[in-house]
Design brief:
Length: about 500
């Protein structure tokens, strides 16, 4: 008795679980949920473009937070500063991936059933159609079997279905692989999500300022702005980037591309792997690395000397064009010098005075390049202010001198290291091809034969019209009845296998 009771309880639990799973599956595969998730991702992505991305405490995040204190509380709570790695975004993507996986499996089961039916349909005989068919039409006049098949073939051709006769059966059966396009498209969507997630975890994306003639290693210390996934491994990277030249008016394809740098990627030994000009729609690709050049500016090369003229260090400072400043430029960052007497820090700001055209600065190399150097103490008081020509020097407190070596160019390189990029493109191509195939490929089974009985010959058909078929079953039956002069049509029971497939299709 106890055993039977426990068995009933176990069966009841299994039934509850099955009901819950069926309800959850219906919810996860509903069009409304998928549309809502996609809408959230689109809105989230748009909002993310208006919010600076980066780690907490970075300069750009701190400045934005100070300018928008009310919004910052909401943005930080939602994790929008790292929008595509936040828990909320990843949870939504995870639910969408689960929904896509379930939809993909449903379509896979439908494709398997249809493919099996197509393989079977290619070998069905007239006797098989007599035993199980969908439509039976008795001609209004006495016609022989070959005449009936000829009339049926002509009618079907006018309806857009071309048939071939074999062993007394008219056949129009799609290829088995034609039913897989929808399933392949949905699996491609799931693969795309997985590839994007893997790429997010393992990629690096940053900005690096490289002066013309300068070489910088591909290491975190070389980047001004950098974001890297938790699985990105810097220890295995042995390469460097060099800007060989910068052409202010580069011509390519009959068009002026503006200021274009020539960039080289070097291996661990300093050998050039690849060199090319880099401009929009012409990125430099080497393995998993893609290099773009979204901006350029000037550079100031300074050396710090002691009183005897010995070089204490050299620095190349990037200078950006900014129209709203007094001289048209601003330094990317502030330099710091340690005083030799008091061991306190001196703050050095460097700009390059630009030439003017009316009230606008000309964002190019000045005719007489120079550097305006302002030295302040830790409290902001000006200790030295001088404009230097190349090879000029100025004294700074502490018995040191700053010497201007040169004014040149730099290019800001946007560098992405993501080994999943080729895989991402491959998955996208497969998905687009599958979507195009689903839009144009026909999926059908049309079989027709003549059955001789006591009342004479009659036409029997078995039909499955799934996708991209230019007619319907009722239209087909009506046209054939009219052509054969049949007073009425008689629809026979559908075979169990085909009926099961119809049920699966309606549920999907």
């Amino acid at each position: 008795m106890g055993r039977r009771l426990r068995g009933r309880q176990s069966a009841g639990h299994r039934q509850v679980i099955r009901k819950f799973w069926r309800a959850a599956k219906r919810s996860l595969t509903s069009g409304g949920l998928v549309a809502g998730l996609l809408g959230f991702i689109v809105v989230w992505s748009i909002v993310a473009t208006a919010v600076p991305q980066g780690v907490s405490g970075s300069t750009v995040i701190s400045e934005w937070a100070s300018a928008h204190p009310v919004l910052e509380a909401v943005v930080r709570a939602l994790g929008l500063h790292q929008a595509f790695g936040s828990i909320l975004f990843l949870a939504v993507v995870g639910v969408l991936a689960l929904s896509t996986a379930l939809c993909s499996w449903q379509r896979t089961k439908v494709a398997m059933a249809r493919s099996r039916l197509m393989r079977t349909a290619k070998d069905l005989s007239a006797e098989d159609l007599c035993a199980a068919h969908d439509i039976a039409i008795e001609p209004g006049t006495a016609l022989a079997g070959p005449e009936i098949l000829t009339i049926a073939a002509d009618v079907l051709a006018r309806l857009g279905i071309k048939v071939r006769e074999r062993d007394g059966v008219l056949r129009a059966v799609s290829q088995g692989w034609s039913v897989w396009s929808s399933a392949v498209f949905h699996w491609s969507l799931l693969a795309l999500m997985c590839v994007v997630l893997i790429g997010f975890l393992g990629r690096s994306d940053g900005m690096m300022a490289v002066a013309v003639g300068q070489t910088k290693a591909d290491a975190p210390s070389s980047y001004g702005v950098l974001s890297a996934g938790p699985l990105h491994d810097w220890s295995n990277i042995q390469r460097a980037f060099r800007v060989d030249a910068l052409d202010e008016s580069y011509q390519a394809g009959g068009m002026d591309r503006g200021a274009v740098p020539t960039v080289s990627v070097l291996d661990a030994s300093g050998n050039v792997i690849k060199t090319q000009p880099v401009y929009p729609n012409m990125m430099l690709h080497v393995g998993s690395v893609s290099v773009n050049a979204p901006a350029f500016g000037l550079t100031v090369e300074l050396s710090l000397e002691d009183t005897s003229g010995a070089n204490l260090g050299t620095v190349v400072e990037p200078i950006d064009f900014v129209q709203g400043t007094p001289e048209g430029t601003t330094a990317v960052k502030e330099l710091m010098i340690r005083r030799s007497d008091t061991r306190t820090n001196l703050r050095v700001q460097v700009t390059v005075p630009l030439d003017r055209r009316g009230s606008t600065f000309i964002e190019s190399m000045p005719q007489n390049p120079s550097a305006h150097v302002v030295v302040r103490d830790s409290d902001g008081a000006v200790l030295a202010d001088q404009t230097l020509q190349p090879d000029d020097a100025m004294d700074v407190p502490g018995g040191q001198r700053l010497k201007l070596l040169s004014v040149g160019w730099y290019s800001r390189l946007a560098i992405v290291d993501d080994w999943t990029t080729p895989l991402l493109y491959a998955v996208m191509v497969i998905g687009l091809l599958a979507l195009a195939a689903a839009a144009v490929m026909r999926q059908q089974i049309v079989l027709a034969s003549v059955v001789n009985g006591p009342e004479g010959a009659r036409l029997v058909l078995r039909c499955r019209l799934w996708r991209n078929v230019p007619t319907t079953r009722s239209e087909m039956e009506s046209a054939l009845s009219d052509a054969l002069g049949a007073p009425r049509s008689d629809t026979s029971p559908v075979s169990e296998a085909l009926a099961g497939d119809q049920d699966k299709e309606s549920r999907s």
